[in-house]
Design a protein that fits this description.
Helix content is 38%, strand content 10%. It is globular, with a radius of gyration of 12 Å. It has a two-stranded antiparallel sheet with strand order 1-2. The chain has a domain of 34 residues. The chain is built from 2 helices and 2 strands, in the order αββα. By secondary structure, the chain is α+β, with helices and mostly antiparallel strands.
Length: 61
């Protein structure tokens, strides 16, 4: 996981929303509900994994 990249047109609407919110509140841990699950991105995923003692996973693996 790395830092989020700057806002670019190729980002999905969800990722654009995430990046905009992170720019405003970089210290908040943002979770997004995706159907029945919550997803956490970039360094927030690492923080959430440690704080919640859950396994960190990646898409496509």
């Amino acid at each position: 996981m790395s830092d989020p990249s700057p806002l670019i047109p190729e980002h999905t609407p969800l990722m654009r929303q995430y990046l905009a919110l992170k720019a405003q509140q970089p210290d908040l841990l943002l979770l997004f509900r995706m159907g029945d699950f919550y997803e956490v991105f970039y360094d927030d995923a690492r923080r959430a994994s440690s704080l919640l003692e859950i396994t960190l996973t990646q898409r496509g693996q």
